[in-house]
Input
Amino acid sequence: MVKVQLAEIPKRRMVRRGRPPQQLAGEVETRILDAARHVFLEHGLAGASMDEIAALARAGKQTIYARFAGKEALFAEVVRRNVATVTAQLEGHIPASGPIEHRLASVAMTVLHWALVGNTVDLMRVGIAEATRFPELAIRVHRMAHELATESVARLLREAAQSDELGTLPAFAPERLPTTARFFLSLVFLPLVLRALYGEKLETLRAEIEPHVARAIPFFLAACRHLPAH
Output
């Protein structure tokens, strides 16, 4: 009989079963979303290939489909993450003291500097371009992005005004704050972004941010101060 030492027996590699650790799962999802963003910007939604996204993300298609039902769901999540990223970056950009005009201008300039970068504008163009082929998706993505932006700006406006007499005005009452935030976005955000969507150079528009905000904020504050109580 030949005695075999335990040390001589090759050890089998242990295989983990079940779900991957949360940190690893998050890293995989980040790779998928980064790859999807790149492919969508390169080819649009209709021209995007799940095979190309999987290869770029170094993930199997089964891994992608386990997280996202298809290209439409993946695109919606790319847009949601894009908006969520900027809203997270906005936190802490409001000066704790100083005139309300300066605090609101800080919010406005932060939003616009984020928006007027190439990939953000290009991603918005993809959504608009695909509206004919995917109308329900376009409506859903636009509504989601608008609601996230409105919620974030409403929170920032409330924080900016709480140490100022504006906080007592009807425009900043909790039930009216979402409307006030939408007005802020329409007045401050949309004019320059629409020009970017129509092809004006981003460098030119970024140079206009400060004078644009200097004109828009006093107008916004005047409207808030003159809003009737009912």
